[in-house]
Amino acid sequence: MEIHRGDDPASTGERPRWLAPRPTVTDRGAGILFAVTLLAPSIQVTWGEGGVLYVAATGGLLLLGGASLHRGLAVKRPRATFVALCALWVGWMLFSAIWSTSGTQYSEDIILLLGILALVGLGGVVVSRAASRQFMGWLLLGSIVSAVWVLFGYWTAGSLRGYDITIAEYYLVTAQLIGMGVLIALSRALMGDRPLLWWPICVLLGLGLALSLARGALLLALLLSVGMGMVSRPSLGETGGRAGGRLLRSVGRVLQSRLLIGVMIGGFAWVALSTALSVERTAARMERLISGAEVTREVGSRDWLWATSWERILENPVLGSGLGSSGRVLGMPEGTYSHNLFLQVWVEGGIVGLLLLLGVVAYPATMALRHLKSGGRADPVFLTAFAMFLFLLGEHSKSTSIYSGRGLFLLGLVLVAVVPGRPLPGRSGESSGTGGSSWRIS
């Protein structure tokens, strides 16, 4: 039986499909711990306690995972495959420490890599669709707080010259969190039950992202918003009336959603441009882009790091220079990285490490694309996870290192867990894969 928004669940005696299955204590705990992992960078740059949060999250997942295995919980094959791919990649990077040219950094990187593997491995035991929904809810709350903080910073500064608070120095971290919040809120606005609640939240988060000074994060979020608008199927919630009337309401709802997305994108782009032109560094970059002036690569800048990393890759493309060696081979202090996840892995782990990392990234993305290509439903949980994964993949390709990229691996695991499978015959709301309930009301 299909339950629509207008039906009364009490009268049917069944639990609404979009609320089933009811989250367990493990689901709630895993959702909170996943969210803590992605919120930790923002908390660290604001209050300096991020490292403790990573340890606490891993310890909490250890307890939840141990309890789940004790109850005989089986880990599904896609999750186990993703964890195994991560283990192979981590294993190779650890092995590369044998020929590392690093003085002391490799020992710290060993601990950080083992932490990533522990996070993904333990998360693979407890991750579920219900846990993923809990995770997205808490992450959305954190992104709203960050967006309000950014807006408050501008109000304190009294101008568009940048928000005068501590996190302004780490605007990329702030922008990544708010960008993920935009995607979560947008999926609920497009396919949820209360669009009048979620569209204003989208506007709030979009303004925070537009004012965060992170041009790349804003562009990625806007492009993904367009994509979500194209593949989403709005929840209609109306079953009565003539077929023609229902069709008109359906078309109207779709056009309304697309129009709202277009207006939001235009507004956020205008706000971002106004802010950028008021900040000296950003204005200079935009002027250089428009005029076509030659890029001046200052030592330590992103352009310089990328160009120098490529030179070092050509010197040792197969095995790389070993774990933790990025800083030394780039002629910078140890602990300096290439400002690009894939360049860093190629510099340190060679082509072998790069191919293994590409396997880790490609596996969840291929599962998602195969599902969409086959005409499968793009429910909000799956669609949001896929958009967030692509968002962080883009961000980590331009402004992060392996060790600040824990969220990408965690989102890959979540995406693998929420790709809908084939419906089981005679069992509404269940599937043979990792599917289940969603925010969409069908």
Structural class: mainly alpha
* Fraction in helix: 55-70%
Shape: globular
N-to-C CA distance: 10 Å
One letter per element, helices H and strands E, the order comes to HHHHHHHHHHHHHHHH
- Poorly predicted sequence stretches spanning 5 or more consecutive residues: 1-20, 236-241, 243-252, 422-442
Radius of gyration: 23 Å
In percent terms, what proportion of residues is strand? under 5%
Major β-sheet profile = none
Count up the helices: 16
Number of strands: 0
Domain module tally: 1
Overall pLDDT metric = 76
Question: Could you please describe the fold and organization of this structure?
Answer:
- 68% of the residues lie in helices and 0% in strands.
- By secondary structure, the chain is an all-alpha fold.
Outline the secondary-structure elements.
Layout: H1 9-12, H2 25-47, H3 50-70, H4 77-95, H5 105-126, H6 129-157, H7 171-191, H8 195-210, H9 215-231, H10 243-276, H11 280-291, H12 302-315, H13 326-329, H14 341-373, H15 380-396, H16 406-418
Helix pairs in contact: 2-3, 2-6, 3-5, 4-5, 4-14, 4-16, 5-16, 6-7, 6-8, 7-8, 7-9, 7-15, 8-10, 9-10, 9-15, 12-14, 14-15, 14-16, 15-16
